């Protein structure tokens, strides 16, 4: 046996062991898959998550068909370390899968098979831990679109779990780099090295933003402007902005979610209408920004300090925002900044207002991620024993995770977490439950986030839940600290949510509203509103359907804030230079 063959065998064995982490230990038999890396001619090794996918649908590559919904196809995952270029390994047949956990249970039939390697890098953090994580490469932490990831050309196979055939797959493709957006007259793109984050992660780390300048910015050199901070998922460019009319030559795209024909044209029209409003005579003159803070765990950081992610809250508040204000003539004071956003952005808008009450002067939080962990979607983290199953002596009903506006459930909490476990162990899937865990949890002894619950069984860890409560349960923190922060939050909190939110986020809003309404000395003096039968992400517009209002964050909240800011501005504040 050659030395290369011995090395490949040892490597396959070590990778197989790595693939068992957090996975079930089921005996392996039946068909096998041999995955080959291309030979680069260099002494290159790879760490990462190897994902094997099988699909009966030929309309798209399997890598684009793994989802929480009913149409998902099959995926299996395993960790790899030190995989040498040019070497092959046998995919672990006992690797954990979604939605069918074991390959032995896959029905016999014709499948399109594809493999993808989500690359990890090594970080030596300031807390003394060394971790292996996927670095964002400009795509916003999307495993199936991350530049540099290797994947195979899909191939059709006949799969039968009773056969012992071995299928050979070569990772013969590499995802290309993302094109950087170009500056325009109104939209500028900035990127800064964060000293705080670089110190934490042990390498250069950056923050960015897309900056929308107000009409007349070039012609009013003496004007200084308030800052409108839109929080949300990773924006490729400034969202909802288009300087040309809709391209009606593009084929119509039907929105199944909203039941709207040619929804792509509707989206373009709304973006163009916003451009006309922004540049028109009556729209408030402010600087609007969308923050880019993708990190090794997710497409954004949740804009707060975290044991696992590092001091993103401080970095955004004290490094990025002052830099933007200095570069583009922002007023540069807390009274002249406000935040808004939906879903993840809704949680962030409220969180930064609560965590930095003097640095921001208003938040508009639409359909926020759970802001009271007694309603962590449909889980009470402080009383429930299991996240996946409803409490019962004899029944074993799974806890719903996603519904439509009529209450039809197409995914459970267990489904959603099992998909994540396939995509990455140790909170590294880049998906929703894992990023909540990464942001809110303390660091474990291995350097990765402590699990809020066992990813396989759903059993909740009450000690971790208590840490979450004290540090990130926004409703609890506001109630606990109201005597201190209440005076700085008066009049600054607005929350909106549909009462049929797809992820049951309205439940936490109900609890938070009750807490806010009970405040005294001072009374919170804000706003909480609900959309009747409205889904995720309703944002407070009672006059428009959700399909439209979700496209109007900037035009809704910027005028609303500028109309009320004088009530909370300090004496002598500049309320005039930017009003022209």
From TrEMBL:
Stored InterPro entries: AB_hydrolase_fold, Mycobacterial_A85_antigen
SUPFAM superfamilies tied to this protein: alpha/beta-Hydrolases (SSF53474)
Protein name, entry field: Esterase
Species the sequence originates in: Flavilitoribacter nigricans (strain ATCC 23147 / DSM 23189 / NBRC 102662 / NCIMB 1420 / SS-2) (Lewinella nigricans)
